[in-house]
Design goal:
Layout (H helix, E strand, L loop, with lengths): L10 H9 L5 H5 L5 E4 L2 E2 L11 E7 L4 E6 L2 E10 L2 E8 L13 E9 L4 E8 L8 E4 L8 H13 L10 H6 L5 H9 L4 H31 L10 H9 L7 H15 L5 E6 L5 H14 L3 E5 L3 H14 L7 E4 L5 H12 L5 E4 L13 E7 L20 E6 L5 H7 L4 E5 L10 E5 L4 H13 L3 E5 L14 H11 L6 E4 L5 H12 L5 E4 L12 E6 L7 H8 L10 E5 L5 H12 L3 H12 L24 H16 L8 H10 L3
Parallel strand pairs: 2-3, 6-8, 10-15, 10-16, 11-13, 11-14, 12-13, 14-15, 17-22, 18-20, 18-21, 19-20, 21-22
Antiparallel strand pairs: 1-9, 3-5, 3-7, 4-5, 5-6, 7-8
Helix pairs in contact: 5-6, 6-19, 6-20, 7-9, 8-9, 17-18
The structure holds adenosine-5'-diphosphate (ADP) and magnesium ion (MG).
Length: 666
């Protein structure tokens, strides 16, 4: 039913409600309050703390007087009684309430009571529905929509013959003794008491998480059903490659390789993610997968989020396979048209076996001759329902994601719920924890001293600033100024270079190469080096204005050092010493464990905007809060699993609609 059937909803109001996503009566009753004002009614006594805001029930004892103090400033006073005590009430700028203050009327006063003066200074007075206003819902409103009106519309809607959709199956409603859906919705808007409100919320939270997990698991099931040609892999050759690597793979890496190979060999399409902390060695795992795919006669592609990273992966592959007869290529957006066309032509003719690139790889004119595997690095920036773009380049290609950002277990379940997960927990043997210290700008000498010590050992340093050019207003030093400062501090005796996103790719490549070859002592950059850059001889990371970065970013940046058995250091420089900043940064000095840090980040920032997931929209829950409701999520997951396995959902017509919704998600 359209909202226009409601009294008072004309074209204007309709448009305003539409803006909030409310089109139907059902949308309206599903527009939940985001919080509640709870008025704990108490009685006034002589012990009341005059500085505390309280709410009391009172009866009006006298008519009200209004004093006009000056323009737009007035005072309304009257007498009221509570707990057998008559006292004065004052409220400012509510002259218009005078007519409502009638002797004998029951009211609720919100404000502060001063026992000595026997005066109550009210910030608000409530008149209606005495018993019910103890808990008052608060809604997100927009211009043109008044609170009272929204409540009125919702109230009217609740009085209509509403057919509310119940998604929780009957047997679970009984198992958990949930109140029925209609009551839940009514109580959400007009809570009778705290207890019922809690039950109502529980119902809606569970329902939301149950249906979400249902979708995610059905999606996973659907994907697992997709068949593809089996890949025949010469395992001996794969093992040879592994044995000849310059290092020994860790147990977790070997386990990942096993998982992947058996996926490649199976007749079901692979949908796997490798999750591992920075520096845990995911790249080599992906590269081995590419080789395995090559052995089976297929092309494979690896997509990286930045050109810097793509180039690094490319050089890496070239290096590993320099003695093999394998054709390797790079494709990025900044290559000339001619270069691109050559690569595209070769891809089509199967003259390229392994290709690395940025998003450019998946533009329309790129065609593969026989694509068998797509690997996406740093995939955590996309959500469940958004990973579709890569899969149209070949017949049911195997799909492997790699995420360098450990995410909280809650998110893993929801974001990666549709994937098989392999985890790399252990770092390569011999790695030392990065020693992390917080400094303020007045201690910069200590940092310089440490840099000097490291340079003497022929080690290299990263310096990161949030911006390229100075910002006077925010008092931020950009990379260019920092470069000059370092040159000055070291009497021009060392090599300092800068790296940032505004440089051309050739320039960037040159700088990174020089840094790799130890021709640069200090590399001053923006966060372009955040993801993936790998130089083992770099042992120190200095981050200016560390307070401006999120915990996960800082952890990623720190992950640029500590990539060999050399002791490494990370200096976080900040002049902000408020508690929040301190708590965040201290977290890094205490731990090198990305999983721990992501949990902390999650706690401190709340759910919603972690790693940009919010932008994907799909992680937005109406009622549920993943952090708070984690236990419910786990339960909902178990329950929806049974619901699917026993095919109970076939008995619920309402699930047909959900299944339709996910049918087209690849
Ligand atoms: P990330 O997981 O962050 O992507 P990388 O794949 O870039 O990490 O690996 C970090 C560094 O560790 C690389 O220089 C890589 O060659 C090296 N590495 C990977 N696996 C091992 C291992 N088992 N032993 C020693 N070094 C390794
Ligand atoms: Mg990586």
């Amino acid at each position: 039913m359209n909202i226009e059937v409601l009294k008072g909803v004309g074209a204007t109001t309709k448009n305003i409600l539409n803006e909030l996503g409310i089109y139907t009566i059902n949308d309206l009753v599903n527009y939940y309050p985001f919080r509640y004002n709870v008025y704990n009614l108490i009685d006034i006594t002589n012990d009341i703390d005059e500085s505390l805001q309280i709410s009391i029930k009172a009866k009006v004892e006298s008519n009200a007087n209004v004093f006009y103090i000056k323009k737009n400033f007035n005072r309304l006073t009257f007498k009221a009684v509570n707990n057998n005590r008559v006292f004065n009430v004052t409220i400012f700028n509510r002259a218009f309430l005078k007519k409502n203050i009638t002797i004998g009327r029951d009211i609720i006063l919100i404000g502060k009571y001063n026992p000595k003066k026997n005066t109550f200074v009210a910030s608000d007075i409530k008149f209606k529905d005495f018993d019910k206003i103890k808990i008052e819902p608060v809604y997100h409103l927009i211009n043109g929509l008044k609170y009272a009106n929204l409540c009125k519309y919702i109230d009217e809607a609740l009085h209509m013959e509403l057919k509310v959709d119940e998604y929780i199956p009957t047997y679970l409603l009984e198992k958990y003794k949930f109140i029925d859906k209609y009551t839940a919705i009514k109580e959400i808007h007009k809570p009778s008491n705290i207890n019922i409100l809690k039950q109502a919320k529980l119902h809606l939270i569970y329902e939301e998480l149950f249906t979400f997990m249902f979708k995610v698991q059905m999606l996973k099931n659907n994907k697992q059903k997709i068949l593809k040609p089996v890949k025949n892999i010469d395992i001996e050759k794969v093992n040879n490659l592994i044995t000849n690597l310059p290092f020994k793979l860790t147990t977790d890496q070997l386990k990942c390789v096993d998982d992947i190979i058996s996926d490649l060999k199976s007749d079901k399409r692979m949908n796997r993610i490798v999750i591992g902390d920075v520096g845990s060695g995911k790249t080599i795992v992906g590269q081995i997968a590419m080789y395995a795919c090559f052995l089976a006669g297929y092309q494979s592609a690896m997509m990286a989020p930045t050109e810097v990273l793509a180039t690094q992966h490319y050089n890496n592959l070239k290096n590993i396979f320099k003695d093999y007869d394998i054709n390797i290529a790079l494709l990025t957006g900044s290559m000339t048209k001619k270069e691109k066309n050559t690569v595209i032509e070769k891809l089509k003719n199967k003259e390229i076996d392994l290709i690395v690139g940025t998003h450019a790889l998946f533009t329309d004119n790129v065609e593969f001759s026989c694509l068998g595997l797509v690997i996406t690095d740093e995939q955590h920036r996309f959500g469940v329902l958004q990973r579709t773009m890569l899969h149209n380049k070949g017949e049911n290609v195997d799909i492997l994601y790699m995420s360098a950002t450990p995410i909280p277990r809650t998110y893993a379940l929801t974001i990666y719920g549709d994937l098989d997960v392999s985890t790399i927990k252990t770092k390569p043997a011999g790695r030392k924890e990065v020693i992390t210290t917080i400094y303020n700008n007045s201690q910069i000498k200590d940092v310089l001293h440490q840099i000097y010590e490291e340079i003497k050992l022929n080690h290299q340093i990263y310096v990161v600033s949030p911006i390229i050019e100075n910002n006077e207003e925010l008092d931020l030093k950009g990379v260019e100024e920092l470069k000059n400062k370092f040159l000055l501090a070291f009497n021009n005796k060392i090599n300092v270079e800068i790296l940032h996103s505004r440089m051309s790719n050739d320039e960037k490549d040159k700088i990174l190469n020089d840094f790799k070859n130890n021709k640069i002592n200090i590399l001053v950059s923006t966060t372009v080096i955040e993801v993936g850059v790998d130089v083992a001889n770099a042992t120190m990371m200095v981050i200016f204005n560390a307070e401006r970065f999120g915990l996960s970013t800082l952890h990623q940046l720190r992950g640029r050092v500590g990539r060999s058995n050399l002791q490494s250091y990370c200096s976080l420089i900040t002049d902000k010493d408020n508690d929040k900043t301190k708590e965040r940064l201290t977290c890094l000095t205490e731990s090198n464990d990305g999983f721990y840090i992501s949990e902390k980040d999650f706690e401190l920032r709340g759910h919603g905007d972690l790693f940009g997931v919010k932008q994907s929209g799909e992680m937005h829950f109406n009622m549920a809060d993943l952090n708070r409701d984690y236990k419910i999520l786990l339960q909902a997951k178990e329950d929806s699993k049974e619901f699917i396995e026993k095919k109970y959902y076939q008995d619920y017509k309402i699930y047909d609609k959900i299944l339709k919704d996910i049918e087209f998600i690849d």
